[in-house]
Fold this sequence. Notes:
This protein is α+β, with helices and mostly antiparallel strands. The chain is about 35% helix and about 20% strand. It has 6 helices and 10 strands. The strands form 2 sheets. It has a 5-stranded mixed sheet with strand order 3-2-1-5-8. The chain has a 5-stranded mixed sheet with strand order 4-10-9-6-7, with helices on one face. Strand 1 and strand 2 (about 140-145) form a beta hairpin. The protein starts with a helix and ends in a 30-residue tail after the last helix.
Amino acid sequence: MAVRAAAAAFALLASASAFATPAAEPSSPHPWQLNMREGVTHSSRMAYDAHMVALWICVVIGIVVFGAMFYAMWKFRHSKGAKPDVNFTHSTKLEIVWTLVPVILLVCMAWPATAKLIAMYDTRNSEMTVKVTGYQWMWKYEYLGEGVEFTSRLDKGSDAMRQSGKTPSWNNEADRNYLLDVDNVLVLPVNTKVRFVITADDVIHAWWVPSLGWKQDAIPGIINEAWTDIDTPGIYRGQCAELCGKDHGFMPIVVKAVSKVEYQRWLAEQKAKAGAPSPEAAHATAVDAMKASPEGIAPAQPATPDPSNTPTPEKAEPVTQ
């Protein structure tokens, strides 16, 4: 029994330490976490505040309802000689109360929730735009107007581990973010309103980073919008949240938030690697980003056929009897 108890205690300690939060990931899950994370953006904090308001309203309702129920069971128990009122049918006053109270509560909850939803979809006054395109099974990021783009897929170490059949270990630092590491992270500046235009190339995906406070579907042929404003530097992880095929579980997302100075330095390095675009091309890309809207992408018009590429029809041979 002692050996079993020691083994159970060791397993519990190991499972708790597996969710320990590194210093570079301020919004990661932590041991014994029961509530949702507050996040590091204005949108995530609005969602957290709405959640807490609804939670405490539910707690109060539960206390009142169960309190009244237990009081009635204790006060009017059979052992005290209580007898049911067989002539009771209904109470108009009671029915009015239990109708009006829920309506008032719902209105009080819906008013701020609606205002928060409107604010979460307001992408005006954004300082930069990032286009996110989902593929099976990776993400493509384009910094519109900057000439920088790259793909981001599951890190080779995680991919090799999952295909080897081995079990990742917390003692191995390289395994601590198993299936949550990528080869190229999305780098964003802090204290900057970033607009996202999100779409897909093949099937429906969903771009989701819990610490940012929102999830947006990536649908082929449609552009969805979202925005974020990260206020704390660090690394924030997410995953594709829409079943998109056999490797759906292997489409992680990693966002690295850095200072504005560090971001500009990183952006300059990426431009140097890719070759800076011409001013005309950068302007055209920025204009396209401004024109992108949630209504969707205009269908591409078919190109005019090139007569020079049209094959010459063969002459029909005469039919012989």
